[in-house]
Design goal:
Blueprint lengths: L5 E6 L7 H15 L2 E5 L2 H7 L4 E3 L27 H14 L1 E8 L1 H23 L5 H6 L4 E6 L15 H22 L2 E6 L6 H9 L4 E3 L9 H14 L5 E6 L12 H12 L4 E4 L11 H20 L7 E6 L2 E6 H17 L2 H6 L3 H13 L13 E7 L6 H14 L3 E5 L2 H7 L2 E3 L2 H5 L18 H13 L4 E6 L1 H12 L11 E5 L15 H19 L4 E7 L6 H10 L3 E3 L7 H16 L4 E7 L8 H12 L4 E6 L11 H24 L4 E7 L2 E6 L7 E2 L4 E2 L8 H8 L7 H5 L3
Parallel strand pairs: 1-2, 1-4, 4-5, 5-10, 6-8, 6-9, 7-8, 12-13, 12-15, 15-16, 16-21, 17-19, 17-20, 18-19
Antiparallel strand pairs: 2-3, 10-11, 13-14, 21-22, 23-24
The chain binds adenosine-5'-diphosphate.
Adenosine-5'-diphosphate (ADP) binds next to helix 4.
Length: about 750
């Protein structure tokens, strides 16, 4: 028997965008680790059929699949696999190929099947040996079946994981649709009911409702109380009274009322029609939610998941359990397979029993809070308060980032709900110097919709000593009690200088909070700043096009991304589009490296390759500019290939915020207002900033922010994503097998 490790990958159950990224990662990580990967076509059916359905996979078999929706190796549902005899056939085919390690991408059904097969494995082998179908050597060589599960499901229903493969792409489809519906609904003053997927899981419905500022949402985990018919009509009327012209109600397909009767879009439609005399329109989004190109997140995170799952399953030894690989914020977590599936399926039992506290709790601590946030945001205040409220000003500072409007709008609508009076500063710190302050209300900011840009305007300038006087005068004259800065590093510096000048200017003795917003993603104690995910998706779309344009010729493309000194956009764009090389300021550039890269280009074009993709961060190196390296590569091409550059410009700062950025903006603003109102209550006057790390949102004193930064490069000391650079090389560079990779990997 050889020591060779054979590993299979299959996709099963419903398809989900991002599955291909997993398949590619499994195949290429296996090749790097010196194992032999097999793609198994049509899910469990393919395992049972064997033959041509189980194919030894090479490096280029998974070329150009990263950006494709669905699953290129097919998926199926199979009743036969639910039977023991079917699973025995599967075991036989796997043993015959020497495959005893599987990465299975599917929903809880597919993973239950995987777990059952792994548990029965020894018994199947004993039976097959007795039948003479396999030899005793075969049985001895494969004492157990090792499974790594990855949940491919747009529903995001795995208990214990923040996201599943496909969910983010589905949210992109849903929010594109709700944005489109909102504009037509507003034109006609109409109410729309949008039905989204989610049999037992309201994640898509709730996240879409928050992100698209819907009027009402119905989710399976918490059926509405009796009398919901009148409540929904009252809510729509209140929003109309506050100036809204369109109404959107989002309903997850699996909803029920408290009596177990399905709560369908048609039922909600009828209830509203009976009460207001006009029937709302229904849009059932259906399979559109599953289709289409995967979002950036579903490419880079699914690549990371496939990579980690493969290394784990290759390192597994006899007696090791099977695991599901999920996510907690940007971290990959390992959950015991059987337990995670059982917890996921238990949600159905909680609902049957009417235990809604348990069904909500299963979704994690953030879910119930998000639901509560939704209700606060979607309920405008009806009566104006008698006493003077605390007045809070919102200001944007720094480069424009998608999501600034969402954050400002959320701050105003949540602030009002908390009893604050909200005003906006037009044009950054200079606006504050000039006293350019406008009143804001639920009604006025509601009109901003989900547009990109910043309705209040933003400026990069940090106030100099002369301007501090003007700012203090404005804060005093306009009786500002608190300040919210939504922006980037210049904003943090500006707020810090106000805080440091408190002795000279008593007006600065007010609570101030910064909210991290920048496409560069370079803010302290914060994993993602608002706007970075949108810019990343813009890049991925642009690079997909660039790649297509090159498909007809032998070409090296050098794509330049923004980010100032920060390589986040460049690296993540590279991983998400399958770039071979990424040049970052953080890791430096050298002539020697360019010469190696040119040699590697020549070698790969001499092979079958027709495109070589290189991404360069705009400030990767002062001298080795995008233009210069493109010319160098053109020179190296020497007729074998040509080289072109594509600079993706300011479109990275524009566009409607992605679902992730809307969600992030709402959660960070919520944390900022919690900090601010806490300070009003306690009588403190701290200047602070909000940061989200590993899914944990906290506020930090601004006076220490520069300790988290290298102020010479204006980069945070902790840049978690730099660790993903090796992933890019493993998945994009076909070097000879490196068994050392596996030995390096620590379980
Ligand atoms: P999903 O994996 O998306 O939840 P299904 O529940 O339809 O989708 O499962 C997909 C396939 O996984 C099924 O057709 C079947 O082959 C297999 N499967 C599902 N549940 C089981 C089970 N309890 N035991 C064995 N195999 C199962």
């Amino acid at each position: 028997m050889s020591e060779q490790l054979n590993i299979g990958v299959l996709t099963s159950g419903g398809d989900a965008p991002g599955m291909n990224a997993v398949v590619r990662a499994v195949v290429r990580t296996s090749l790097h680790a010196g194992a032999v990967p097999y793609t198994i076509h049509e899910g469990w059916r393919g395992v049972m059929e064997g033959g041509d359905a189980i194919v030894r996979a090479g490096w280029s078999d998974v070329s150009s699949v990263l950006g494709r929706g669905g699953t290129v190796i097919g998926t199926a549902r199979s009743a036969e696999f639910r039977e023991r005899s079917g699973r025995q056939r599967a075991a036989l085919n796997l043993v015959r190929r020497g495959i005893d390690r599987l990465v299975v991408v599917g929903g809880d059904g597919s993973l239950t099947g995987a777990d059952t097969l792994a548990r029965e494995w020894r018994d199947h082998l004993t039976d097959l040996l007795a039948q003479g179908a396999i030899s005793s050597d075969d049985a001895a060589a494969h004492p157990s079946l090792h499974i790594a599960g990855i949940v491919g499901s747009i529903d995001n229903d795995l208990v214990g994981s923040s996201m599943t493969v496909g969910t983010d792409s589905a949210l992109h489809r849903i929010m594109d649709a709700t944005d489109a519906i909102a504009s037509t609904a507003a034109s006609h003053q109409r109410t729309f009911i949008v039905e989204v997927m989610g049999r037992r899981c309201g994640y898509l419905a709730l996240t879409a409702a928050l992100g698209s500022a819907a009027d009402e949402v119905f989710i399976p985990e918490l059926p509405p109380e009796d009398g919901w018919e009148d409540a929904v009509v009252a809510k729509i009327r209140a929003a109309h009274a506050a100036g809204r012209r369109d109404s959107i109600i989002i309903v997850a397909e699996g909803c029920q009322d408290r009596h177990g009767t399905p709560l369908t879009a048609a039922r909600i439609q009828q209830a509203i029609a009976e009460r207001v005399g006009e029937a709302p329109r229904i849009t059932a989004l259906g399979h559109v939610q599953r289709g289409g190109t995967p979002s950036a997140y579903d490419r880079w995170m699914s690549s990371a998941l496939g990579h980690t799952a493969t290394l784990e399953v290759l390192a597994a030894g006899p007696g090791d359990d099977s695991y599901i690989f999920g996510t907690r914020a940007e971290q990959i977590v390992r959950l015991p397979l059987a337990e995670a599936v059982a917890n996921t399926q238990a949600v159905g039992t909680h609902l049957e029993r009417g235990d809604y506290a348990a069904s909500l709790a299963a979704r994690g601590p953030h879910f119930a809070h998000k639901l509560e946030l939704f209700h606060r945001l979607s309920t405008p205040l009806t009566d104006s308060p008698a006493r003077r409220r605390r007045r809070v000003a919102i200001v944007h500072v720094g480069g424009l980032a998608p999501g600034m409007n969402t954050a400002a709008r959320t701050a105003v609508q949540l602030g009002e709900a908390l009893g604050l009076e909200m005003v906006g500063v037009r044009g950054g710190f200079p606006g504050l110097v000039d006293g350019d302050i406008v009143p804001l209300s639920w009604r006025s900011v509601d009109k901003w919709g989900n547009a990109g840009g910043a309705a209040l305007g933003t400026r990069r300038t940090v106030p100099d000593t002369g301007e501090l006087f003007g700012i203090a005068r404005t804060l005093e004259e306009r009786r500002i009690d608190g300040l919210i800065m939504i922006g980037g590093l210049a904003g943090y510096e500006g707020i810090l200088s106000l805080a440091q000048e408190r002795l000279h200017y008593p007006a600065f003795n007010i609570p101030m909070v910064c909210i991290p917003t920048s496409i560069d993603n370079n803010l302290p104690n914060n994993d993602f700043s608002i706007g970075a995910d949108t810019a990343l998706n813009t890049n991925v779309e642009a690079i997909d096009r660039v790649k297509e344009s090159a498909s007809a010729s032998n070409r090296c493309f050098v794509v330049e991304t923004m980010g100032r000194n920060c390589g986040f956009l460049a690296l993540l764009s590279g991983i998400s589009t399958g770039a071979e090389q990424v040049y970052l300021q953080e890791t430096g550039m050298s002539l020697a490296q360019l010469s190696d890269d040119a040699a590697s280009m020549v070698a790969s074009f001499r092979g079958k390759r027709s495109l070589y993709l290189v991404i360069r961060n705009e400030q990767a190196n002062e001298n080795l500019t995008t233009d210069l390296i493109t010319r160098l590569f053109e020179e190296a091409g020497h007729g074998l290939f040509d080289a072109r550059s594509a600079v993706i410009g300011h479109q990275q700062q524009g566009g409607e915020p992605s679902p992730f950025d809307r969600d992030l903006a709402i959660r960070l603003v919520d944390a900022a207002l919690t900090d601010l109102t806490g300070q009003f209550r306690d009588g403190t006057r701290d200047a602070r900033y909000i940061g989200s790390q590993d899914g944990d949102i906290r506020s930090y004193p601004i006076r220490h922010f520069d300790e988290q930064m290298d102020m010479a490069t204006r980069l945070p000391l902790r840049q978690w994503w730099l660790g993903l650079r090796d992933l890019l090389y493993t998945l994009a560079r076909n070097t000879s097998a490196e068994p050392s990779l596996l030995s390096l990997y620590q379980r």
